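FAQ
Q: What does a multi-component entry look like?
A: The components come first, one per line:
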Amino acid sequence: MDFFLQLLVNGISLGLLYALSALGFVMIFKSSSVLNLAHGELLAIGAFLFLVFSTWARLPIILAFGLTLVGTFALGFVVERLFLRPLIGENLIEVIMMTLGLGIMFRGLLLFIFGGDIHSYPDFLPKSLTIQWGAVQIPSVNVATFIIGILFLVIFGFFFKYSSQGIYMRSVADNQPAALSLGVHVRRVFALSWAIAFIVAAMSGIVLGIINGINVHELSAIGLKVFPVVILGGLDSIGGAILGGIIIGLIETFTGGYFSTALKEIIPYIVLIFILMVKPYGLFGLVEIERV
Amino acid sequence: MESCAFQLQVVAVFILISTEFLTMENNIKLLVNNISVVYSDVIQVLKGVSLIIRAGQIVSLLGSNGAGKTTTLRAISGLLKPENGKVTEGSVEYDGKPIQNSSPEEITRKGIIQVLEGRQEFKYLTVEENLRVGTATRWGKPFKEDLELVYRYFPALQARRKSLAGYCSGGELQMLVIGRALMAHPELLLLDEPSLGLAPLLVKEIFQIIRRINQEQGTTLMVVEQNANMALQIAHYGYVMENGKVVMESTADELRENPDIKEFYLGTAASGALKSYKDVKSYKRRKRWL
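Then the predicted structure of the entire assembly, as tokens:
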């Protein structure tokens, strides 16, 4: 029973991490229908930026964290301006190919600067965050993941549902010509969605870095894990991303705990295939509204 | 020195007043001056269209399909660009300033809002969220009062405000897109076929509301319509387009009385009585004003 609870807790916190990472992906897809194939590299960029600020520059952790957020946000704007804005109005497939190219470029740059070794952050999480509950022990990393994950998911959920800017972003995703006719600044919406995607990716990158160490290849590969999460939840649903993340996290930890650790990388994709057969729009995806 | 500055001031005030007076006198809100529009650099759709829209008026633009009515609206609202179109000649002046080929973001912020043809709602947003998108030109700031105003004009929307726009009926959607444009505080509202596919009673209702908007809000309107009868009832002035040119313009009353308009657009014969099929021969009589 204790083992089960332990796995449950680990699974949920891992799931929240996936959810946070998937959020960045959903953000871009929602506003511009672009599948961002460079998502894993965005995680890596955030993780390494934090490494630079915290370990190399030896800034206080809070400051380093803040600078990473600001830095990735700005980087998101720059990348959108330089590489994606010229493609507005082109075919979607060309934009998706561009993200693929961006991902390869980012990975190359990171490898060039930091090399392929595993780096690690200084141990900065306070021990008091660790929760001991009977035989179940939740490490401080997982508690931190929990807090960050829930905090940001709630913030972005409210942002999209109630804030004007969030509604404009959804309107662009929904019907771009109509949004243009009402004066929604479509280019600004795209830029903002990339900047936000960079930020949330950076956050999940940092947490993953704390758990597994920071390595270019490993972090980029986790970007792929976003696909089962978002497809399970529905590509354009934030609630779906959260639930999809938690489900995939749970499946992974339980397979790892009860069956074999070798299987745990594969099972999410098998589940994905079954879900797609039963619910092609994902659990919470928008069902195409058609007028009949 | 001081008196010199004072004199300058007086002169400046004079100039201000006189220009104010001039624009007051002409009262021209929008001046479309001999524009040509070309799509994809090769397809010429408009060939020298000129229009004047005076402040506070409803101007209707009539014409058959493919005459260039929608393109004219797009040339004004800046929405040609996403369609790969361009104003190649002539000018569009709004309050005396040229706006041709400006981006839609700039033009909407000057107060020109176009309601697109065919009810382009945001399917996956609720009715109220749809309306809130109309506040984009002022960064979403106050919107509560505007919502109430729109609900006053369209009470049907209030009942549906929490439901997804994708599940609303055609009539509700037409109200929604007009209401959404109202949220933007338009000075010049361009309506593209507001009666498209609506039941006759609903068309009547929508046109009455359009007239009320014009009278109560002081909004200048331009209405593109196939339903010439309805359009000429509420309009002050009308233009008729054919093949990318304006072929006729007059006050709405005169247009209603014009025998050609009566025959081709209003569907009533000059005498008001039914004609013999032998006499009509509209293919022979069909008049081109080219």
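Q: Is there any commentary attached?
A: Sometimes. For this entry: The interface with chain A takes residues 77, 79, 82, 104-105, 108-109, 113-116, 120-125, 129-130, 132-137, 139-140, 143, 164, 166-167, 177, 180-181, 184 of chain B (CB under 8 Å).
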